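Appendix C reproduces, verbatim, an entry submitted by the partner laboratory led by Prof. M.T., so that reviewers can inspect both the input and the predicted structure.
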Amino acid sequence: MTQYIVRRLLLAIPTLLAMSFILFSILALAPGDPMSQFAANPAVPPEVRENIKRSLGLDQPVSVRYVKWLTSAVQGDLGYSFGSRIPVMNLIKQRLPTTLWVIGTAYLLAIFLAIPIGVVAAVKKYSLFDQVSTTFAFIGFSVPTFFTGTLFIIIFSVKLGWFPFIYDSTIKVTDLNSFIQLVKQSIMPIMVLALFQMATFTRFTRASMLDNLPLDYVRTARAKGLDDRVVIVGHVLRNSLIPVVTLIALGLPGVFTGAIVTEQIFRVPGIGDLLINSIFNSDTPVVMAIVFISAVLVVAFNFVVDILYSFLDPRIKYD
């Protein structure tokens, strides 16, 4: 196991280096210029624009800029935003709590609901519960989140007036009333994301359970007289979780990057909203930081999934 971990870490380093270089090159060659806001202003002389461009380091070759960025990134400095002129990490830290609260809560809710529903649907195959849950699952991942979000706004905000449809980022939790306000404004975006994720996890859990239920080890466990719940939870579910854990772990980086569409619909000031605004404003340091951190998380969670495999299925060895 130790040798496997070392090999994976050694492999991750060149992988991340290659990904960072490709991302940096694409952003450097992409259309759009952070100086375009000054180009349309006749009051800004060309020499002023050149000085600003020089101060941002945009007059240097791409290779030189990449080496400087990589050197700073290794030290934890992801540069400064072209628009706000503050460290990129500060911008991310400002948006991260909101993203973790909304997207993270939706992700956890989807996991805790989807796995039991998928297990019960597989055990009671073709029952009324299975048919209803399967129908809702198909609807959940077939209907896009922008449609679900708009529908929720029309029903629960416009018609019923239960929840606000604009997320207020100025609310600070200081007492019970402010906490209730925070929860009320978060319910719709959380439910939109949770329904979409839950549908996918439910289908994967059900399909994986159905693959394992007819196998010999399940019949052997039942023949030994084990309680059916012990067989389902202790044996079948454990082996069935391997593809589900893979799906969940690979989706976790999305919790950091945020839900771009949902955040735009409900005006949630999260990482996804920051990414979209940075793309529109050609704020490449912010875009580079968010995308690269997402890539790092994908590589890291791939590694975590491989380790979890050996705990879920003792037959998997990395020696």
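The longest helix spans residues 176-212. Additional entries are available on request from the coordinating office.
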